[in-house]
């Protein structure tokens, strides 16, 4: 019998019941909640007279609607009354049912996918769900983690289970070493550029290979975060020493003998050598260059040394039309060099890239430099209050502010512009977030997805520039 | 949940692949704490020429005459014909809520994004996957013939054209069963409450670190 994949192991360990019709009941260890996708679920519970099945499996925080300024005012700092109601509703629901919530003034508040790992509420081998598609982030810890809709939020609250169909297994292997200035973000954008935004549909993707193994937990989280942008609800990385070192000592992590027992189990959370995958895609890590998205879908990416594509060269009529539509929306010309794209704003933050390592990488680039005069705004939004505290302890905030970037309070912010941080019509933004869809960062806004280091370099230049030239000016290609 | 058995309705063809859930319902409308009322803002940025805001009377807003749902011949459409990877991106269930509130009962496409596909079934909305060449044919027919309607039978798993041509589709048995009977799947799961408790008891013994941390 062939060995098991990591996904097979996680599935088997959480299988409560296999039904005859092919569906299965899967137990959920951790449920994360935020204010946008939970109110209707709590309301549903109340209407049906149900109670949460297991209170201690839940952890909540407001993140999508929170302002990134004036946080000392707490909820009163939310100017938009509709946003304020949503944040207040989360608070009331959590208080009513006794669910732990890091409220807006708690320094542990932050983006839900940043605080889970930070607190050790994300532990290897868990099943983790949240009403947010970027829940795939937690797969970096060898978890089975994915986004769900609000009906399923209610289902998990009421039953601690989900009805699931087993997905297929895909291995995305990134061999070799990454070059200088190439990060997890560039790797995942390059992967999506190749397999497409539906390439992972129906699959659980495991990311493996030397380049992935050499990444920090932050880098792995960035990659798993964007598995959904390749169509896969689930992205995963096997547990290794890097995983266990990251988890150790965190507030929710086990201690003493329980820790030892947990580590023993966690060490088994990798695909067996003879495991069979339904699909394998391989990349040479040394060939991946810093990436920039030029279009309105995360698969529309190019190397920093490359150019905007020419739709006339695309043979598939549906793809050609997609490119034409994207270029029109983005205000770009065919064959335009990526480095010729001028920017209006720069956003460093989001559940993809707002952790301490991301901020360190951005700070290293802007240190001693200034943001280009042509920019309207460049902002850094840390992923949590604790990331902010850590960054300030390291002096990163001063580096950003001296360079001319704004240093904000934690939240989802301009990734989806549900709070006051947004793009104006036609503005180009270098953004470390995960989606470049039309209107995502503001009505008519134009998003370019990049790594934190590339966003920082773009802030200094006012247009896209190869970050490797700034990191190492003497050996730069140009 | 509202049951779905059979449906016959007017078809609106939306000729665009990778329609994401941000496009189906933009973020400013996600601030609502209700499940209803999203219909006027379905495809907001494609449908109107101005920027939509929550709590606004959309009937007074300038319409984009080029957008398919604004064309007179597609008024009252209840079957959306779409292209591949429909519903990609955000997990927001507001997307099926908006489609449902607008009046759609069925969406036909060559492929759907996983989370969106799943969310549809929770709301009595039926997503149907048909082969690309069949979808191409339906696009041609729907665009050529005004008032083009399709008949969908979930029990028989068929889509039938006005000429009587019938196409079969697949849907997994559990989802079909819940939709046909309008079942509350939380209620179905709770029938196995004893099994869930037994699983939990066993995990408390073998993996105690999974319990109690969040209190």
TrEMBL record, chain A:
Keywords, comma-separated and alphabetical: 4Fe-4S, Amino-acid biosynthesis, Branched-chain amino acid biosynthesis, Iron, Iron-sulfur, Leucine biosynthesis, Lyase, Metal-binding
Names of required cofactors: [4Fe-4S] cluster
Gene3D superfamilies according to UniProt: Aconitase, domain 3
Domain Aconitase/3-isopropylmalate dehydratase large subunit alpha/beta/alpha: 8-462
InterPro entries: 3-IsopropMal_deHydase_lsu (IPR004430), Acnase/IPM_dHydase_lsu_aba_1/3 (IPR015931), Acoase/IPM_deHydtase_lsu_aba (IPR001030), Aconitase_4Fe-4S_BS (IPR018136), Aconitase_4Fe-4S_dom (IPR036008), IPM_dehydratase_rel_enz (IPR050067), IPMI_cat (IPR033941)
Record carries keyword DNA-binding: no
Stored Pfam families: Aconitase
Reaction equations catalysed: (2R,3S)-3-isopropylmalate = (2S)-2-isopropylmalate
Cofactor note: Binds 1 [4Fe-4S] cluster per subunit.
Domain of life (superkingdom): Bacteria
Class of the enzyme per the UniProt entry, highest EC level: lyase
UniProt EC number: 4.2.1.33
GO molecular function, one term: 3-isopropylmalate dehydratase activity
Keyword Lyase assigned: yes
UniProt pathway annotation: Amino-acid biosynthesis; L-leucine biosynthesis; L-leucine from 3-methyl-2-oxobutanoate: step 2/4
Ranges annotated as spanning the membrane: none
Residues holding [4Fe-4S] cluster: 351, 412, 415
Assembly notes: Heterodimer of LeuC and LeuD.
UniProt similarity note: Belongs to the aconitase/IPM isomerase family. LeuC type 1 subfamily.
Biological role: Catalyzes the isomerization between 2-isopropylmalate and 3-isopropylmalate, via the formation of 2-isopropylmaleate.
Identification of the protein by name: 3-isopropylmalate dehydratase large subunit
Species: Marinobacter aromaticivorans
Organismal lineage: Bacteria, Pseudomonadati, Pseudomonadota, Gammaproteobacteria, Pseudomonadales
TrEMBL record, chain B:
Pathway assignment: Amino-acid biosynthesis; L-leucine biosynthesis; L-leucine from 3-methyl-2-oxobutanoate: step 2/4
Domain of life where this protein originates: Bacteria
Name used for this protein in its record: 3-isopropylmalate dehydratase small subunit
Pfam families found in the cross-reference section: Aconitase_C
SUPFAM superfamilies, sorted: LeuD/IlvD-like
EC main group: lyase
Domain Aconitase A/isopropylmalate dehydratase small subunit swivel: 1-132
Subunit structure, as described in the record: Heterodimer of LeuC and LeuD.
Known role: Catalyzes the isomerization between 2-isopropylmalate and 3-isopropylmalate, via the formation of 2-isopropylmaleate.
Keyword tags: Amino-acid biosynthesis, Branched-chain amino acid biosynthesis, Leucine biosynthesis, Lyase
UniProt keyword Amino-acid biosynthesis present: yes
A GO term for molecular function: 3-isopropylmalate dehydratase activity
EC number(s) given by UniProt: 4.2.1.33
Gene3D superfamilies, alphabetized: Aconitase, domain 4 (3.20.19.10)
Classification via PANTHER family: 3-ISOPROPYLMALATE DEHYDRATASE SMALL SUBUNIT, 3-ISOPROPYLMALATE DEHYDRATASE SMALL SUBUNIT 2-RELATED-RELATED
Originating organism: Marinobacter aromaticivorans
Catalytic reaction(s) noted: (2R,3S)-3-isopropylmalate = (2S)-2-isopropylmalate
CDD domains: IPMI_Swivel
Family statement drawn from the similarity comment of this UniProt entry: Belongs to the LeuD family. LeuD type 1 subfamily.
């Amino acid at each position: 019998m062939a060995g098991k994949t990591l996904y097979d192991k996680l599935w088997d360990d959480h299988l409560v019941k296999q039904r005859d019709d092919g569906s299965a009941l899967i137990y959920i260890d951790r449920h994360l909640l935020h204010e946008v996708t939970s109110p209707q679920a709590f309301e549903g519970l109340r209407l049906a007279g149900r109670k949460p099945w297991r209170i201690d499996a839940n952890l909540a925080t407001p993140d999508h609607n929170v302002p990134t300024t004036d946080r000392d005012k707490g909820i009163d700092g939310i100017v938009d009354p509709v946003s304020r109601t949503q944040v207040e509703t989360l608070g009331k629901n959590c208080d009513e049912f006794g669910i732990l919530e890091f409220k807006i003034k708690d320094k542990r508040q932050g983006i839900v996918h940043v605080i889970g790992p930070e607190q050790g509420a994300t532990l290897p081998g868990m099943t983790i769900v949240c009403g947010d598609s970027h829940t795939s982030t937690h797969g970096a810890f060898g978890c089975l983690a994915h986004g769900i809709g609000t009906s399923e939020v209610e289902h998990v609250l009421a039953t601690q289970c989900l009805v699931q169909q087993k997905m297929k297994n895909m291995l995305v292997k990134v061999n070799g070493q990454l070059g200088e200035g190439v990060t997890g973000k560039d790797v995942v954008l390059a992967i999506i550029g190749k397999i497409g935004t539906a390439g992972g549909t129906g699959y659980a993707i495991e990311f493996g290979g030397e380049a992935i193994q050499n990444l920090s937990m932050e880098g792995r989280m960035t990659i798993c975060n964007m598995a959904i942008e390749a169509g896969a609800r689930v992205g995963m990385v096997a547990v290794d020493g890097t995983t266990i070192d990251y988890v150790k000592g965190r507030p929710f992590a086990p201690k003493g003998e329980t820790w030892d027992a947990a580590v023993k189990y966690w060490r088994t959370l990798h695909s067996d050598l003879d495991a069979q995958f339904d699909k394998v895609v391989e990349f040479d890590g040394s060939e991946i260059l810093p990436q920039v998205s030029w279009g309105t879908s995360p698969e529309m990416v190019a190397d920093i040394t490359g150019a905007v594509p020419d739709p006339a060269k695309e043979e598939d009529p549906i793809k050609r039309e997609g490119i034409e539509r994207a270029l029109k929306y983005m205000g770009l010309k065919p064959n335009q060099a990526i480095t010729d794209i001028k920017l209006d704003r720069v956003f460093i933050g989001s559940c993809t890239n707002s952790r301490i390592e991301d901020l360190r990488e951005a700070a290293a680039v802007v240190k001693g430099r200034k943001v280009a005069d042509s920019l309207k705004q460049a902002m850094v939004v840390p992923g949590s209050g604790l990331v902010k505290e850590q960054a300030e302890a390291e002096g990163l905030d001063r580096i950003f502010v001296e360079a001319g970037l704004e240093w904000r309070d934690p939240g989802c912010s301009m990734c989806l512009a549900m709070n006051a941080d947004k793009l104006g019509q036609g503005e180009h933004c270098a953004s470390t977030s995960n989606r470049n869809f039309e209107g995502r960062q503001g009505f008519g806004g134009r998003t370019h997805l990049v790594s934190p280091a590339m966003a920082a370099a773009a802030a200094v230049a006012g247009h896209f520039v190869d970050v490797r030239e700034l990191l190492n000016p003497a050996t730069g290609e140009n | 949940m509202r049951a779905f058995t059979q449906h016959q309705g007017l078809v609106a063809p939306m000729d665009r692949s990778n329609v994401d859930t941000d496009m189906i319902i933009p973020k400013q409308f996600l601030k609502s704490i209700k499940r209803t009322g999203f219909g006027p803002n379905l495809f907001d940025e494609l449908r109107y020429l101005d920027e939509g805001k929550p709590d606004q009377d959309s009937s007074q807003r300038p319409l984009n005459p080029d957008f398919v749902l604004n064309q007179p011949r597609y008024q009252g459409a209840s079957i959306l014909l779409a292209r591949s990877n429909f519903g990609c991106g955000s997990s927001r269930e507001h997307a099926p809520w908006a489609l449902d509130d607008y009046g759609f009962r069925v969406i036909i496409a060559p492929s759907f994004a996983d989370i969106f596909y799943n969310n549809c079934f929770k709301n009595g909305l039926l997503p149907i996957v048909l082969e690309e060449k069949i979808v191409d044919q339906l696009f041609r027919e729907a665009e050529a013939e005004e008032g083009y309607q399709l008949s969908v039978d979930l029990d028989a798993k068929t889509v039938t054209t006005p000429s009587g041509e019938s196409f079969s589709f697949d849907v997994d048995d559990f989802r079909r069963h819940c939709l046909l009977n309008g079942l509350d799947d939380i209620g179905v799961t709770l029938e196995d409450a004893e099994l869930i408790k037994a699983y939990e008891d066993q995990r408390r013994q073998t993996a105690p670190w999974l319990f109690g941390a969040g209190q």
